[in-house]
């Protein structure tokens, strides 16, 4: 696991008053080095092995990088946008646009290209820019990052406020098995841009990509490929009998995860068992949701589960429908969680902050792997990801900090 | 923790044992409690599986278990009738004398009970215990179900290494065969012999309630026919999620196995290898085999299924009886061939593997199990009518 950065004392009380206890630790995320998007000459096999291992108080875990397909039926619900790329800015003059864009980091040449080779519609409420393909292709990855950081502030910029996320520069591996033509993957490689945090890549140019499709079948293939979600399959490696007590202590999480103890004890004392899927070690509600997309039943009360629903109910046998924007959210956190000192423990709640807002939360499992529901929409499954990827996914401004809270022990 | 060994719809609640052909034997010829993995091939693909033995958590050993007295609740009868029955059951004169002199006979709400000490237990033979068990089952089935423990594997092997050798010897001394099933009736006596050693009492109770389960993995390799696998594990189109999981595994280089837990619908995925949670219990009922079977394809467990409903309330309307071999998700119901009484239900997974919860006991888990293990609660000579039901696509 990447060691948490040195504790920055109680800054978080300033960042999110009312949520974060005064003793909690806020960790600033250091920007990662960004490499170029790569595309193998031969799309298969991947250049990196899918399997990785990590060892610690959780034992040894083995992980496989998997791209989880969205259920086929769900693709019908994806609203396919117009293939005309449109950027929405607040109403502003041309001069104001130039200032805004250059301040954000775009070069003067790029700003001039945008203005000269796009259709711009100004009205009292909004500035609409319809860039040509030439404009889109001419922008450097850094320019895409800078431009989309501005655009992400407006939810009407649908694919900037929630871009597609790739956790690796190796697009050949990411799109392995997706049936996407190599030419399309090449287009994606040219349009993906580094996230502001420097971890992973975003893609906002679905409208542009749609113009490259020749039929509804091609469109569906494209959407199907882009809606795959990076996740990890995770197994506990069981080799050393001397570790049994340590493993039980870690995964039982101080009796909070007591339901898994019978199986855990059984597997640990069964000869010849070398690996156990970590799904067996999750509490029942988390196990029920893992690698699942929300179904109609999950939204029966009018809302689909979001990150807070998922984190708050992680240890609960019967979920309660409380959401990230529920008025009681902060009171629940204050009552049920306490600030946690490193190292992280199984079931810890990790909050992501941007400015004064809590923008996401996920649950620490082991090593640097978390259980997360990245968006309440039906296309976003409950998955296991590396924390740095969760940050990369959510950090639209490059300013995310994290704090860790620990679920209070059960009352007995 | 309530002392629930609830009897519903004529279910047998406790586990026993009969033949388990897939289990290898040790060099000494004894059945090994820890078999090597097996592979099963069929329309479900290739599934690699092995058995584990799960024991109930300490929290599920209800406190009164440790305070029970040795007694038989005989139902609505008189002492004279009971003593006459003991003669017919073949009780020795010594045993009958002790029951007449040192035991305490008392009236209880359900009829007559006799409470006795260690002397009675210690003179009883296995034959007498077997005769008593058969008689008690007819006189007071609810009580009988609560005091009886059937041991998996037709032996006390599950205690090996789990309790002290002398404790195992104590269990051996009171274990007896009911037909093909190895059982014990004298749990209170056993715990008394352990004195104040609470830790050993907990260990022996957990071991006695030990249940075998199956952990399996579907093998996905270049030879796997993905569409066939998705059709099988998705039960047609009932579990569309399965398609997304299997396609993703297939597309991942170096990953060639997926645990069956990922291929189960939401409710069994949540409940597998867990014990009854109090949130699923009401004053009338607790989850049993029928509850587990009918909830199999639900997205959340329905508490309506705790109600005392007619067997056909859902079965006759939401399911269609089929005559073809069962596939994933089919509900298999067993009826007594003679009385036509409903006895047990489970969900067919593959081949010889079922999803089940044996009875309503808090000490028995939801799990994947081998049919042979699951059926070991029943006397080998008992005849069943097996009926297979498939949930309608519209439900």
Descriptive overview:
The complex is a heterodimer of chains A (412) and B (395). By secondary structure, chain A is α+β, with helices and mostly antiparallel strands. Chain A folds into two domains: 5-75 and 230-407, no CATH class; 80-162, no CATH class. Chain A has 16 helices and 18 strands. In chain A, strands 1, 2, 13, 14, 15, 16, 17 and 18 form an eight-stranded antiparallel β-sheet that branches. Chain A has a four-stranded antiparallel β-sheet with strand order 3-4-11-12, with no helix packed on it. Chain A has a three-stranded antiparallel β-sheet with strand order 5-7-6. In chain A, helix 2 runs antiparallel to helix 3 (108-116) and helix 11 runs antiparallel to helix 12 (261-268). Chain A is globular. The model of chain A is unreliable at 1-23 and 40-49 (pLDDT under 50). By secondary structure, chain B is of the alpha+beta class. Helix content of chain B is 29%, strand content 23%. Chain B is built from 14 helices and 16 strands. Chain B has helices spanning 79-88, 93-101, 118-123, 126-139, 141-147, 165-174, 187-193, 198-208, 226-233, 241-250, 266-271, 289-294, 312-318, 371-374; strands at residues 38-42, 45-54, 71-75, 104-108, 111-115, 149-151, 176-178, 181-184, 211-219, 257-259, 319-322, 331-336, 342-350, 353-357, 366-370, 384-391. In chain B, helix 4 crosses helix 5 (141-147) and helix 9 packs antiparallel against helix 10 (241-250). The longest helix of chain B is centred in the middle third of the chain and has 14 residues, at 126-139. At the A-B interface, strand 4, helix 12 and helix 13 of A face strand 2, strand 9, helix 10 and helix 11 of B.
Offer a quick outline of the entry.
Chain A is an alpha+beta fold and 412 residues long. Chain A is built from 16 helices and 18 strands.
């Amino acid at each position: 696991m990447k060691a948490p950065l040195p504790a920055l004392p109680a800054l978080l009380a300033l960042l999110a008053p009312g949520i974060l206890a005064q003793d909690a630790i806020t960790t600033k995320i250091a920007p990662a080095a960004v490499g170029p998007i790569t595309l193998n000459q031969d799309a298969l096999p991947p250049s990196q092995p899918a399997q990785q291992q990590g060892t610690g108080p959780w034992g040894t875990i083995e992980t496989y990088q998997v791209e989880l397909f969205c259920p086929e039926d769900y693709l019908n619900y994806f609203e396919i946008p117009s293939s005309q790329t449109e950027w929405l800015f607040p109403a502003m003059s041309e001069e104001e646009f130039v200032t805004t864009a250059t301040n954000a980091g775009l070069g003067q040449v790029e700003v001039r290209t945008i203005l000269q080779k796009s259709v711009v519609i100004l009205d009292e409420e909004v500035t609409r820019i319809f860039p040509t393909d030439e404009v889109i292709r001419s922008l450097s990855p850094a320019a895409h990052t800078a431009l989309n950081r501005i655009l992400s502030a407006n939810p009407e910029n649908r694919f900037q406020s929630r871009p597609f996320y790739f956790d690796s520069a190796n697009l050949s591996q990411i799109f392995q098995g997706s049936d996407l033509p190599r030419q399309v993957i090449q287009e994606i490689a040219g349009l993906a841009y580094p996230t502001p945090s420097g971890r992973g890549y975003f893609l906002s140019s679905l409208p542009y990509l749609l113009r490259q499709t020749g039929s509804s079948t091609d469109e569906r293939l494209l959407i199907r490929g882009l809606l795959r979600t990076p996740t990890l399959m995770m197994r506990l490696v069981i080799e050393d009998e001397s570790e049994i007590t340590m493993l039980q202590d870690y995964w039982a999480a101080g009796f909070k995860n007591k339901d898994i103890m019978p199986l855990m004890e059984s597997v640990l004392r069964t000869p010849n068992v070398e690996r156990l899927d970590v799904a067996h070690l999750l509490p029942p509600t988390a196990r029920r949701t893992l690698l699942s997309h929300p179904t109609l039943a999950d939204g029966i009360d009018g809302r689909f589960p979001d990150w807070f629903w998922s984190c708050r109910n992680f240890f609960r046998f019967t979920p309660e429908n409380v959401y990230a924007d529920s008025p009681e959210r902060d009171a629940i956190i204050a009552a049920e969680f306490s600030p946690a000192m490193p190292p992280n423990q199984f079931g810890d709640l990790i909050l992501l902050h941007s400015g004064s807002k809590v923008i996401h939360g996920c649950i620490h499992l082991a090593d640097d792997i978390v259980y997360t529901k990245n968006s309440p929409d039906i296309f976003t499954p409950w998955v296991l990801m590396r924390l740095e990827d969760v940050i990369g996914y959510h950090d639209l401004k490059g300013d995310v900090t994290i704090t860790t809270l620990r679920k209070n022990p059960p009352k007995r | 923790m309530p002392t629930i060994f609830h009897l519903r719809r004529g279910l047998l609640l406790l586990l026993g044992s009969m033949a388990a052909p897939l289990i290898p034997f040790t060099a000494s010829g004894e059945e090994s409690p820890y078999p090597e993995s097996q592979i099963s091939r069929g329309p479900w693909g290739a599934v690699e599986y092995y058995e584990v033995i799960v024991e109930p958590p300490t929290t599920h050993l209800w406190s009164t278990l440790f305070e029970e007295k040795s007694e038989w609740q005989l139902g609505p009868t008189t002492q004279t009738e009971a003593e006459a029955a003991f003669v017919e059951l073949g009780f020795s004169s010594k045993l009958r004398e002790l029951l007449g002199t040192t035991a305490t006979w008392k009236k209880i709400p359900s009829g007559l009970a006799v409470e006795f000490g260690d002397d009675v237990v210690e003179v009883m033979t296995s034959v007498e215990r077997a005769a008593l068990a058969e008689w008690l089952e007819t006189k007071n089935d609810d009580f009988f179900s609560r005091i009886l423990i059937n041991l998996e594997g037709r032996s006390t092997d599950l205690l090996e290494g789990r309790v002290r050798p002398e404790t195992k010897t104590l269990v051996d001394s009171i274990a007896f065969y009911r037909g093909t099933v190895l059982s014990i009736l004298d749990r209170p006596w056993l715990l008394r012999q352990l004195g104040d050693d609470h830790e050993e009492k907990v260990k022996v109770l957990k071991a006695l309630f030990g249940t075998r389960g199956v952990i399996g993995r579907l093998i996905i390799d270049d030879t796997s026919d993905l569409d066939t696998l998705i059709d099988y594990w998705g039960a047609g189109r009932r579990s569309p999620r399965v398609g997304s999981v299997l396609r993703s595994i297939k597309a991942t280089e170096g990953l060639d196995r997926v645990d069956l837990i990922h291929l189960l619908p939401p409710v069994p995925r949540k409940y597998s290898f867990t014990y009854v949670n109090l949130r699923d219990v009401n004053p009338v009922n607790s989850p049993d085999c029928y509850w587990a079977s009918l909830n199999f394809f639900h997205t959340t467990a329905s508490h309506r299924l705790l109600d005392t409903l007619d067997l056909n309330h859902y079965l006759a309307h939401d399911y269609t009886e089929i005559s073809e071999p069962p596939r994933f998700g089919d509900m298999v119901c067993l009826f007594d061939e003679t009385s036509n009484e409903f006895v047990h239900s489970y969900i067919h997974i593959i081949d010889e593997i079922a999803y089940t919860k044996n009875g309503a006991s808090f000490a028995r888990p939801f799990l994947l199990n081998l049919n042979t293990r699951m059926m070991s609660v029943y006397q080998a000579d008992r005849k069943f009518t097996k009926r297979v039901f498939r949930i309608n696509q519209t439900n």
